[in-house]
Each structure stands twice: as C-alpha cells, then as structure tokens.
Design a protein that fits this description.
Shape: globular
Order of helices and strands: HHHHHHHHH
Distance between the termini: 79 Å
Number of strands: 0
Length: about 240
C-alpha cells in the first residue's frame, strides 16, 4: 500500500500526512474534472483565509470581535472538513467508479453551494464579510470596506464555481448510467468501502471478458475444423497384398 502523502507537511513537524493522493491512479478521462475540483477546494481554502484578513480589518475599524472569531473558526474547521467531506468522496468516486461516493459528494457539495451563497450574502455576525456587511460598513470605514470587498468577491465566485461544478459532475454521473439504486446496492453489499471486493470485481470482469473472447464462435469453428482434418493417416499392409 502506498504511503500517505497529503497534506504535504514539513519534516520538522511531528505529524504525518493522513491521505494518499495521486491523480495518476484516476482514469485518464476523469483526471481533468478531478483536478478542477481539487483546485476549487484550494480556492475555497484561500477564500476563507482572505476572509479572515477582511474580518480582522473589520474588527480594527470598529466592527467587533465576533466576526473575527467566527472567521477563524471557518478556517480551522471548514478547511479540513471540506477536503474530507466532499473532495475525498469525489476523488474516490472517479478512481473506483463508486456510485455511493458520488452520492456522498452530491449531498455534501449541495450544502457547500448553499453555504457559499450565504457567505457571499454576508450576514453580520456569521464571520464572513459578504455583500451586506461590506456595503453597510462603507459609511464607517472606506479602507476597511475595500479590504472586505476582496473576500466578498471571492465568496461570490466560489458560489458560482461550485454550482457549475455540481452541475457538470451531476450531468456526467447521470450520463454514465449512475442512479440512487446503484448507490444503495453498493451500501448494502459494502463494496463501497472494501478495496478487496472492488479488486475482485475488476478481476472477475476481466476474466469474463477473456473467457468470452476464448469461447467466441470463430474460435470454436476453427477448432472444429482442425479436429475434422486431424484423422490419423491410413496404413497399407503391402505384405498381405503380395
């Protein structure tokens, strides 16, 4: 089994990576979409960090400490949670063609889209700058409001990109024949969490394909022809004839 390599941590930190991530293990036709979702996750983390800076400027300009504390909580909790709860499922879904992981991604990422819209709106006291908080604070401090405008635009872009990504993945999944019933079958059988079962299924499919090729009508016809013309040569007793 490959050694975990994500997140990449400096050697002096007494912690080790928790996950193994290698886009080469994903089928080539899915790598582009999976990398886009990974970049979307990175953009989400950067947006939360920039929002922390915006809430700090908001606090120093007289906006209160509540928003800064909540923004800090957003960074600490939602950076790892977003990776575990929606990026890892879609990573494993593309890698193993798992309907259960696709469904897990859809349910969590729909919540992610909703949260991104709320963050873009910017309800005061929620730890996000957003449009409401930024526009209403222009009368108090223009400089702080300009800083707050940056994460506001990033939250808006995140909401739009997330909706587009959700639509694209859903269209791909439905187009490939995926359904809720297929995910339920995986959940019931436990195949969604068993690499051994997944590997056995792949080997069984490969064996069935090989057997079908070997037992094709063309091969059988050739074999019958060889048997027809493989009789022993006739023997002639010349002594008796003489």
């Amino acid at each position: 089994m490959a050694e975990n390599n994500f997140p990449p941590l400096p050697g002096f930190i007494p912690l080790k990576p928790c996950f193994y991530q290698n886009f080469d293990e994903i089928p080539e036709q899915h790598q582009s979409m999976c990398k886009k979702l990974y970049h979307l996750w990175i953009f989400h983390c950067v947006t939360l960090a920039v929002n922390l800076v915006g809430c700090m400027a908001w606090m120093f300009a007289g906006g209160g400490v509540t928003n800064f504390g909540m923004a800090l909580m957003w960074v600490i909790l939602f950076t790892p949670c977003s990776y575990v709860c929606w990026f890892r499922p879609i990573y494993k879904a593309f890698m193993t063609d798992s309907s259960f992981n696709f469904m897990a991604f859809f349910f969590v990422f729909m919540a992610q889209v909703f949260i991104s819209v709320i963050q873009a709106i910017g309800i005061p006291g929620w730890g996000v700058c957003g449009w409401l908080g930024t526009i209403t604070f222009f009368g108090t401090s223009i400089f702080a409001s300009i800083i707050m405008l940056i994460p506001t635009l990033m939250f808006t872009a995140m909401a739009c990109f997330s909706f587009i990504a959700l639509t694209q993945v859903h269209n791909f999944y439905r187009g490939s024949g995926g359904s809720m019933s297929k995910a339920q079958e995986e959940w019931t059988s436990g195949a969604w969490k068993s690499p051994v079962v997944q590997q056995a299924a792949q080997q069984a499919a490969l064996g069935a394909m090989t057997g079908a090729m070997q037992g094709s009508p063309t091969t059988q016809h050739a074999t019958a022809g060889e048997q027809q013309y493989s009789h022993a040569p006739p023997s002639y007793d010349y002594d008796n004839q003489m």
